[in-house]
Amino acid sequence: LSRQLSRSSATHTLAEELALDETIDEQDLYRAMNWLLQRQGKIEQRLAKAHLKDAEPILYDLSSTYYEGSTCVLARRGYSRDGRKGARQINFGLLCSSRGCPVGVEVFPGNTADPSTVQTQLEKLRERFGLKKILLVGDRGMLTSARIEALKDYDGVSWISALQHTKIQKLADCGAVQMELFDRCDLAEIECEEMFPDERLVVCLNPTLRAERTRKGNELLEQTEKRLNAIAQACARSKNPYQGKDRIARRVEREAGTYKMLKHFKLTVTETSLGFERKEASIREESALDGIYIVRAKRKGTEEMDAADVVRTYKSLSGAEAAFSSMKTETLHVRAIFHRREDMVRAHIFV
After folding, report:
1. How does residue 1 score in pLDDT terms, banded at 50, 70 and 90?
2. What is the mean pLDDT of residues 317-340?
């Protein structure tokens, strides 16, 4: 960048338009980044004052970007959202208004789990931004059941999130979720005070997603069955048959287990053979919930919303995702990070 801003090596007229000195070096840029970082708090407060209001939804999500090097204390190995497994990374959380306008960003070590960042954001919203009533919107990986339980200790804090699949299955098992709910509409509000006290649960059916999940599930079952059949034939061949109970079991896991569908097959493994058949009841039970998702919300703080508004508010998280997309790929190109000092990494993300 310094070469791009130096008159002798520039390929554009930005330096001239900004009336910068003839030569811009790296230290000039670092001083500018440091100047900006010192004013992050005041800048975010002005943004929050303009775009955040008490009791209005606030979107929060976490992303990451990979790091080139090994000297920064923030660079850690963790769950990569960039598909760079094994690479060090930096995590950063983004607070947005209900319309998706970014108002605050926080940098975390790359091995920080999503839920553990929520408390720091609540402190920022209450202490730095001065909000007394907070409606936080986060995905099911961010606002987990454990984190939601912890939020009950905060006065004036409400939330909207979604249930993970295991919780949806439990609701289905106890009869709270029934497909008859969707005979006339695609969403229905239910209650389950025993499992989710003081919460609103809005069950939604996405027909397009349901059809896609069914198609993909059938495809994975067929691929798993194909691999199992190949192993069974290898065990049954007359010349050099594949034998050994443990060897066969390991091969099944290695070749057929990649599709995560072995739970739907009854396997019979002996020293010289492999037998298998589908568990049709298990397949039907799981596919019954295809396309179903449940939005959960704290009852207090969302009373004025109808069920459709609760779902729309949860879906507005796409605004935060769009901001991440803009930061990482479309316009700002935040990745990869090369800065060595922690303060410069924070300034880089803030820019």
Report:
1. low
2. 75
pLDDT at 82: 75
Helix (H) / strand (E) containing 298 = strand 292-298
Q: In angstroms, rounded to a whole number, what is the distance separating the alpha carbons of residues 210 and 30? A: 51
Could you tell me how many residues make up the chain? 351
Distance from C-alpha of 276 to C-alpha of 267, rounded to nearest angstrom: 5
Q: Are 217 and 287 in contact (CB under 8 A)?
A: yes
Asked whether 319 and 325 are in contact (CB, 8 A), the reply is no
Query: Is this structure's pTM higher than 0.85?
Result: no
Q: What is the DSSP string of 164-189?
A: -HHHHHHHHHTTSS-GGGGSS-SEEE
Helix axes 40-51, 26-38, angle to 10 degrees: 50
What is the sign, positive or negative, of the torsion defined by CA atoms of 200, 204, 209, 214?
positive
Q: How far is CA 134 from CA 104, 189, 323, in A?
A: 15, 23, 21
Q: Would you place residue 19 in the very low, low, confident or very high pLDDT band (cuts 50, 70, 90)?
A: confident
Give residue 332's pLDDT band: very low, low, confident or very high (50, 70, 90): low
At 57, is the secondary structure helix, strand, or coil? strand
Tokens representing residue 101 in the block: 């306008």
Rounded to the nearest angstrom, the gap between the alpha carbon of residue 11 and the centroid of all alpha carbons in its chain is: 39
350 in Cβ contact with 81 (< 8 Å):
no
